[in-house]
Specification:
Blueprint (H helix, E strand, L loop, with lengths): L1 H10 L12 E4 L4 E6 L9 E8 L7 H4 L2 H21 L13 E2 L6 E2 L5 E3 L3 E8 L3 E2 L2 E2 L1 H17 L7 H24 L1 E6 L6 E3 L2 E4 L13 E4 L8 E7 L2 E6 L5 H10 L3 E2 L8 E3 L3 E4 L7 E4 L17 E3 L4 H15 L3 E5 L5 H4 L3 H6 L14 H8 L2 E5 L12 E6 L2 E4 L1 H10 L28 E2 L2 E2 L1 E5 L2 E4 L2 E4 L9 H16 L9 H15 L20 H10 L7
Parallel strand pairs: 15-22, 15-23, 18-21, 21-22
Antiparallel strand pairs: 1-2, 2-3, 3-7, 4-7, 5-16, 6-7, 8-9, 10-14, 10-17, 11-12, 13-14, 19-20, 23-24, 25-26, 27-28, 28-29
Helix pairs in contact: 1-4, 3-5
Length: about 575
């Protein structure tokens, strides 16, 4: 502590580079600060420090570390409290560039495994970014002293050192409840559970917070189930959606897409107060949408699309600019390749010609002239041959009644089970459309990515960096992830970028494994070593990564314009 103080005094007023001398570890009364990385100048990305708090000074009970899930929720809570304490002291320091900035990788509405706070056996580690203060390009030692000796201590005092055990206890209980709901879902083959009282709509298109004055969710009576949860007296009730094919219908603006969006996010867990804290979906559910313009590399979409004009092959379909239907077919096939068990589809973001072709159009345009086998002709095989369920929003076509196991109608934001009525209507209005049936197999698409796919070279350097939630720059190319809707946190994107670097450095693609096996390996590394395994400096400060699912990792590999496949 003294040492740092003296150092800061001695470099006061010197050129900014002299800050490099403070790299190292310093003991404080209740914690240790490790200055891992010092920025090159006041305008560069901020310096990285770690705060290490031994359990003696902030006891973390063994039972809180007992399960991986509990550990994640406790870390999440600490990260939130540090973020709040940082906000309370914001902008107290002065100077040029990023002087005085203090930042933690703050969680959003989802509770994700992240590196910002790490709970170890005997200590807690908090990773922060700080802008070391300067006047112009000269070191401002006084402000730096204030940063380390007044502001940081105050942040810690008002966060980690003042969190009550009961607060953490509540998070641990939520973790247990989420696990319990997931277990129950598995036992009963439910792919979704939406609790009564859940708030599904969001404040706005750009906000992930709950809409105020929303109509709370209320299950249909046919779908209502009861779940006994730990740490709760009354059983939780809500709507269960079974494996199979579920159709969500209803008039425009009655809440269909809102329900589906909540299900897309239900692969993650949400904080209490979010409104979706008891909305859970099959963790391997993948949103499928049309995504014209995307890159496609050697994907077998022949189950859906065949005999394109000019004889383009669809068993190894490759394009730099996919159409609505070919991109959506690709998204289905790639999701299956990566191991999905549930597809989530909304008519609003689908290509119509991929989803339906009615009897009249079949009569006019003969089968031989139409390359597309619409999804409606494959949805049952997905269920029966591959065990892949579908939840589909479709207000515009009754053709899907024929293939649905269950039909749910949204009416003024409330669901009604109208399966029987739909059956009745099918009887009275039979449809004469022909359907094409060919068996689907799991191995229809099994690609091995070649090592040169990961081309990080940019001039003389290797570079890969997440620019935003939906953009990764790799070498001289840009990977666009706008269509990957279940990527929800920029820290997940950063983790994927780090993973690309890791895979390149470790020459992982030389193992020539099929994509699904590769994803298994990556998940094993994350399980065993944590996300920091992908960081180039795993023992320093990998403080801004959050765990992506295998499907979002695959989505990135699939969209690289440099991908080459065996
Ligand atoms: P649809 O897909 O059926 O056309 P949306 O899901 O897009 O309808 O919903 C239409 C509007 O209604 C949106 O602005 C949405 O925020 C709002 N909304 C959805 N669910 C609710 C609800 N439970 N309470 C209040 N407003 C809602
Ligand atoms: Mg809609």
């Amino acid at each position: 502590m003294k040492k740092l103080q003296q150092l800061l005094k001695s470099i006061d007023g010197k050129g900014y580079k002299a800050y490099k001398s403070i790299q190292g570890r310093y003991s404080f009364h209740r914690y240790e600060i490790s200055v891992d990385y010092v920025q090159g100048d006041p305008f560069a990305s901020p310096s990285k420090i770690r705060i290490v708090i031994p359990d003696a000074y902030r006891p973390i009970k063994d039972e809180w570390k007992q399960s991986k899930e509990r550990n994640i929720y406790v870390a999440d809570h600490i990260a939130r409290s540090v973020a709040k304490a940082i906000q309370a002291v914001a902008k107290q320091l002065q100077g040029s560039g990023k002087s005085g900035l203090i930042h933690i990788d703050q969680p959003g509405q989802e509770i994700l495994e992240r590196t910002a706070v790490q709970i170890k056996n005997d200590k807690t580690i908090i990773c922060l970014s700080v802008g070391l203060p300067a006047n112009g390009r000269r070191i401002n030692g006084k402000e730096a002293e204030k940063l380390f000796f007044t502001i940081l201590p105050s942040i810690l005092k008002h966060s980690i050192f003042s969190i009550k055990d009961e607060e953490i206890e509540q998070k641990v209980q939520l973790a247990d409840q989420h696990i319990a709901i997931r277990e129950k879902m598995k036992e009963n083959n439910w792919i979704a559970f939406i609790a009564d009282g859940a708030i599904l709509p969001r404040e706005s298109g750009v906000s992930n917070r709950p809409l105020k004055k929303a109509v709370p969710f209320e299950s249909t009576k046919e779908n209502r189930v009861k779940i006994n949860l730990p740490h709760r007296e009354e059983p939780l009730t809500g709507m269960a959606i079974k494996q199979g094919i579920s159709l969500i219908v209803g008039g425009g603006y009655h809440g269909k897409s809102t329900l589906l969006q909540a299900l897309e996010r239900g692969v993650y867990h949400h904080i209490r107060g979010d409104g979706r804290e008891y909305v859970l979906t099959d963790p391997d559910a993948v949103k499928i949408r049309a995504e014209d313009g995307r890159q496609v590399t050697s994907v077998n979409i022949s189950a859906f699309i065949n005999d394109l004009p000019h004889g383009q092959a669809t068993t190894k379909f490759t394009t730099e600019n996919a159409s609505g239907s070919t991109s959506q077919a690709t998204n289905v096939v790639e999701a299956i390749e990566a191991g999905t068990t549930t597809l989530l589809i909304d008519e609003d973001t689908s290509a119509t010609n991929f989803m339906i072709r009615d009897a009249r159009m079949q009569a006019l345009v003969h089968q031989d002239k139409e390359p597309i086998t619409p999804f409606i002709d494959k949805i049952k095989q997905l269920r029966d041959d591959l065990n892949v369920s579908t939840i589909l929003v479709m207000g515009g076509s009754g053709d899907y009644f024929d293939v649905a196991d269950e039909v749910i109608m949204m009416d003024q934001y409330k669901p009604f089970n109208v399966t029987d009525q739909a059956r009745e209507i099918m009887k009275n209005h039979p449809v004469s459309r022909q359907s094409v049936m060919e068996k689907l197999t799991n191995d229809m698409n099994q690609r091995i990515f070649l090592p040169q796919s990961l081309n990080l070279q940019k001039g003389k350097k290797k570079k890969v960096q997440a620019k935003s939630l939906y953009t990764i720059l790799m070498g001289t190319s840009t990977i666009q992830l706008q269509g990957v809707e279940q990527l929800v946190d920029a820290s997940q994107t950063r983790a994927i970028a780090e993973l690309l670097r890791y895979m390149e450095a470790k020459e992982i693609l030389k193992q020539a494994k099929p994509l699904a096996d590769l994803l298994d390996d990556i998940e094993k590394v994350m399980d065993n070593e944590g996300l920091q395994a992908f960081s180039p400096f795993p023992n320093q400060h990998p403080g801004d990564l959050a765990r992506p699912r295998r499907f979002e990792i695959a989505a990135c590999l699939n969209r690289m314009r440099t991908t080459k496949v065996q």
